[in-house]
Design a protein that fits this description.
Elements: E1 4-10, H1 14-25, E2 33-37, E3 53-54, H2 61-75, H3 77-81, E4 96-100, H4 103-118, E5 124-126, H5 128-134, E6 145-149, E7 154-155, H6 158-171, E8 175-178, E9 181-186, E10 193-198, E11 203-211, H7 217-222, E12 230-242, E13 252-254, E14 260-265, E15 268-273, H8 290-304, E16 311-324, E17 331-334, E18 341-345, H9 351-368, H10 382-385
Helix pairs in contact: 1-6, 1-9, 2-9
Length: 396
C-alpha cells in the first residue's frame, strides 16, 4: 500500500476489475492503481449474481456495438490478456428469443431490429409459423412476432473472465484492498477529488477516481456532492430441472409478461423475473419471495412451454440491478465540474456483457483523456444534468 495513487477505483466487481486490467495492459499507462473493494468475497456483488448472458438485441446502436466487442473479447481472451495460461472461452449461441403479443410490441421489435441490422447484428424477425417450425415446444396462440439472433448471443463464462482480469492486473502491479470508502475530500476549488478516506482509517491521495460501485453508486457519488439516478432493484433467478427436457436448446426466451427462461444444459434451465412493483431496495435485501415463483413465474413458464409443467427448482437467489432510473443506460465518463471523478455506473442488468468495452473505454479516458476505440461519450454524465435520456427499450 502507498499513501498516494494515480488512479483509485472504488469497487472491485466486474467494472472495476475490467478497468484495472485494461490499464495494466496498456503500454502507454505507467501510473499506480488501487482497487478498493468492500467485500472481497463478492458474496453479494452483482457480478456474482449475474446470469452471464450476452446479446446483441438492444434498441440503442451503441449498446449493440458494446456487446459486439464483448463477444470478441470473450472468444479471444488469451490474446487480449496476452497470456497463454488463459483458457479458451466461447459463447453458447442459443440466442435470445423476444416474443411480441401486441401491435405495440411488434412495432418495438421491428424498430429494434432496424437498429441492430444497422450495427451489423444478425437478428432475424420470425412470424408465428416460423417460430413454430423452428421451436415447436412453444405455445404461440397469442404471439404475433418473434425476434432472435444466434450469432454471439447466449451464455458465456463470466466468472472466468472476472477471475482472469483480476489475476492479470494484480500480477501487473495493481493493488487491491479490502475496505469501504467512507469519505471523499475535494480540493479548495471543489473541482477535484483530493483524497479518499477508508474504513481502515487510511487517507489516500488520488490523481483520478473511478466510481464502479454498482448498486451503491449513488451513495459513492453523494460523498462528492453529486446526484446520481442509480438505485438497487431486486431480481430473482431460479434454476430448475425438467422432468421432460426439451429436445433442442432453449433460447433465452423473453416472454411478453416479462419472465425470461433459458437453456443451462443437461435438462436444466434458468428463469428470471422481477415483481410487478419494482421499488428500490436496501443494499442488504436479498430475501427470496417463494410465492412469486409458485403463483406467477412457474405458471407463466408452463403456459408458454407446456413441457415445463413438471419441473423442480434446484437453486434460487436474488441479486441487484444497478438500475439507472433516467434511461436504463450506462453513465460513464468524467463529471463536468469535478473533472477527476469518473462514472462507471447504472448498467441496469447489462454490466457483465458491457464490462469489456466499458473497462477499455474508461482506461483509455484515464490514460489519454479521450476514447481511442469505441466512443462512449453519448453515455456521459452530462445527459443526466440536462435530463436528456437515451432510453434503452430492451431491458429485461
Amino acid at each position: 500500500m502507498q499513501d498516494s495513487y494515480d488512479i483509485i477505483i472504488i469497487g472491485g466487481g466486474i467494472m472495476g476489475a475490467s478497468t484495472a486490467c485494461f490499464l495494466s495492459q496498456n503500454p502507454d499507462f505507467d501510473g499506480t492503481v488501487l482497487v478498493v473493494e468492500r467485500d472481497p468475497s463478492y458474496e453479494f456483488a452483482s457480478t456474482s449474481h449475474t446470469n452471464s448472458c450476452m446479446r446483441q438485441q438492444f434498441s440503442t446502436g451503441l449498446n449493440v456495438r458494446i456487446s459486439q466487442f464483448a463477444a470478441d473479447y470473450v472468444k479471444n481472451l488469451a490474446n487480449y490478456l496476452n497470456d497463454s495460461r488463459v483458457p479458451k472461452l466461447d459463447i453458447q449461441n442459443f440466442g435470445y428469443m423476444y416474443l411480441a403479443d401486441s401491435e405495440e410490441m411488434v412495432t418495438t421489435l421491428r424498430s429494434n431490429h432496424a437498429v441492430q441490422q444497422a450495427a451489423g447484428a444478425a437478428t432475424k424477425l420470425l412470424s408465428r409459423s416460423e417460430i413454430a417450425a423452428a421451436y415447436p415446444f412453444y405455445a404461440l396462440d397469442d404471439i404475433l412476432l418473434g425476434s432472435i439472433n444466434t450469432v454471439d448471443e447466449g451464455f458465456f463464462d463470466g466468472q472466468a473472465v472476472f477471475d482472469w482480469q483480476r489475476r492479470i492486473s494484480r500480477e501487473a502491479g495493481v493493488d487491491y484492498i479490502a475496505a469501504e470508502v467512507t469519505a471523499l475530500t475535494k480540493n479548495k476549488a471543489a473541482n477535484r477529488i483530493q483524497s479518499v478516506t477508508l474504513s481502515t482509517g487510511q487517507t489516500l491521495s488520488c490523481g483520478q477516481l473511478v466510481n464502479a460501485t454498482g448498486p451503491r453508486a449513488a451513495r459513492t457519488a453523494a460523498m462528492a456532492g453529486i446526484s446520481l439516478p442509480v438505485e438497487p432493484r431486486k431480481r430473482f433467478t431460479w434454476v430448475f430441472r425438467a422432468e421432460h427436457p426439451l429436445e433442442q436448446p432453449l433460447p433465452l426466451t423473453v416472454d411478453p409478461c416479462g419472465v425470461h427462461v433459458r437453456e443451462v444444459g443437461g435438462g436444466t434451465y434458468m428463469a428470471g423475473a422481477h415483481t410487478e412493483e419494482d421499488p428500490a431496495v436496501a443494499f442488504d435485501d436479498f430475501a427470496l419471495d417463494h410465492g412469486f415463483w409458485q403463483d406467477h413465474v412457474w405458471p407463466m413458464i408452463a403456459t408458454r412451454i407446456p413441457q415445463f409443467e413438471a419441473i423442480k427448482v434446484i437453486s434460487e437467489w436474488a441479486g441487484h440491478y444497478a438500475y439507472n432510473t433516467l434511461d436504463q443506460n450506462a453513465i460513464t465518463g468524467p463529471h463536468p465540474e469535478i473533472s477527476n471523478f469518473l462514472f462507471l455506473n447504472g448498467f441496469s442488468g447489462h454490466g457483465l456483457q458491457q464490462s469489456p468495452a466499458m473497462g477499455r473505454g474508461t482506461a483509455e479516458w484515464l490514460t489519454y483523456g479521450s476514447y481511442r476505440s469505441l466512443d462512449l461519450s453519448a453515455f456521459h454524465y452530462e445527459r443526466v444534468t440536462r435530463n436528456a435520456p437515451i432510453r434503452e427499450q430492451a431491458v429485461i
